[in-house]
Amino acid sequence: MLEGESRLFDGANPDQRPPYPRDRDRILYSSAFRRLAGVTQVVSPSEGHIFHNRLTHSLKVAQVARGLAEHLREEMGGKGWLPEHIPDPDVAEAAGLGHDLGHPPFGHVGEATLNRMVKGCGNSDGFEGNAQSFRIVSKLTAHRPEYLGLDLCRRTLNALLKYPWFRSSSDDYRSRKFGAYRAEWKEFCFARRGDPTDDRLSVEAQIMNLADDISYGVHDFEDFWRAGLIPVDRIRDSDDTFDTFLWKWGADPKANVSKEELQARKDHLREYLRLTFPETVPEAFLERAAVRRTTARLIGELIRSVSVKKINGWPEVEIGNRDKRWELAFLKRFVWQFVVKTPKLGTQQEGHARIIRCLFRYYLQAIRKGNLDYIPGRFRGFTGAHLKTKRPGGDARIAADVVATFSELEAAALFGRLTGTRDGSVTDLLHA
Fold first, then answer.
1. What pTM was computed for the model?
2. Fewer Cβ in 10 A, N or C end of the chain?
């Protein structure tokens, strides 16, 4: 058995499947993965099937990640790469399936709210979706009575670490984005081969990260284009509208792009827009077919533009074509500017944050009082263990675990019960 195929617990499993496809299937069949059907990608799943939810997004990230891994595997073959540096398609696909397991109800607003609540209770790790994904696969998911979590192979766990470090205490990027809580120190060190200070991403983690960007840029753009929320025709056909779009992009301090860079790329981006999104086809069926053809072509072009180079002996995956890097950033910017930043979404998010705060406080109080009847059955063992040890911040971690495992319909239903605005039913499975 290769080192990357080793597991913390399940080395003697009689399953005849190869180790990495088995990991992929463990994630695919988990309840944590199914829950993503009820979690926001950009807008709520209740808005309709035209929009991606976290589950359909994850499926497409996994498919793109597999395509990228197969493309790079062929490119790297016979060129002197170490075996562990050549991407495995099953590992890349598994990372794509599992990368968003930790996203709580209501997407990033739920994540930010839980982070504030957990930190406010004295747990310095707070809450972070990527770290929660790692916690789910390594500890929270029920798979076998003999161990906690899914007991994934070392290489698969490592592929999930988009940010392979713990939370920084300083006010920098690593204080906002990190891959594991310190509560998962043992599992993190196992995934990192015993060296928690090595912050290089594995080749499959890089592929998963890039597949996530491609899926967000192309598939989410497709959603809002079809829904009529992104006025491609006005931007494409009007010089003033196009210039205004670029100006807003360059004026955003979070965009990480200068106005001078945008001005230098203006002609290329305008031509890309005109070639990619030609005049709208008047007949509905043909228009939908044209959308599908466009997105398929964009993904194919982006995958083929990805390359790998060796830096100090380590594989670095990137979109080697500079034009394609700009085009992907261009597509992602549409979703940010015309959907994420809209006041309509902002007011909705304030209501979502209120739900998260209420549920967190409810479960935190129940844990502190030892009221196990109020805790979902799948978390009572963790709660009982905490009540014995009373580790600082442990109650907040469990309360966040509970809230983060609800779908958005479940969270809204429970909030309605607690506030008296909805009775619910004794047959509801909210506490199973």
1. 0.91
2. C
**Six-digit token pair at 181?**
């809580």
Q: Residue 144: phi, psi to the nearest 5?
A: -140, 150
Distance between CA atoms of residues 256 and 258, nearest Å: 7
Q: Please give the Cα distance from 48 to 155 (Å, whole number).
A: 37
Virtual torsion, Cα 93, 94, 99, 102, nearest 10 deg? 150
Helix (H) or strand (E) holding 311: strand 306-311
Provide the sign of the torsion angle of the four alpha carbons 158, 316, 294, 270, taken in this order: positive
Looking at per-residue confidence, does 365 or 343 come out higher? 365
Yes or no: say if 69 and 88 are a contact pair by the CB < 8 Å rule: yes
Q: What are the backbone angles phi and psi of residue 317, rounded to the nearest 5°?
A: -90, 135
Task: Read off the pLDDT of residues 24-36 as tens digits, 9 standing for 90 and up.
Answer: 999 999 999 999 9
Tokens of 25: 């299937």
Is-contact 308 210, C-beta < 8 A? no
The residue with tokens 């999104």 is: 277
The confidence band for 282, taking pLDDT boundaries of 50, 70 and 90, is: low
| pLDDT, tens digit (0-9, with 9 covering 90-100), for 188-197 | 999 998 888 9
Give tens-digit pLDDT for 116-140.
999 999 999 999 999 999 999 999 9
Across all residues in the chain, what is the average pLDDT? 87
The H or E element spanning position 350 is helix 343-369
User: Is residue 255 packed enough to be buried (19+ CB in 10 Å), middle (13-18) or exposed (0-12)?
Assistant: middle
429 burial class (0-12, 13-18, 19+ CB within 10 angstroms)? exposed
Q: What is the pLDDT of residue 45?
A: 56
Question: pLDDT class for 343, splitting at 50, 70, 90?
Answer: low
* Domains observed in the chain: 3-203 (1.10.3210.10), 230-341 (no CATH), 345-419 (no CATH)
Residue 135, phi then psi, degrees to nearest 5? -65, -40
Does residue 306 sit in helix, strand or coil?
A: strand
Q: Which amino acid is at 18?
A: P
Distances in Å between the Cα of 324 and the Cα atoms of 32, 210, 264, 276 are 34, 13, 15, 13
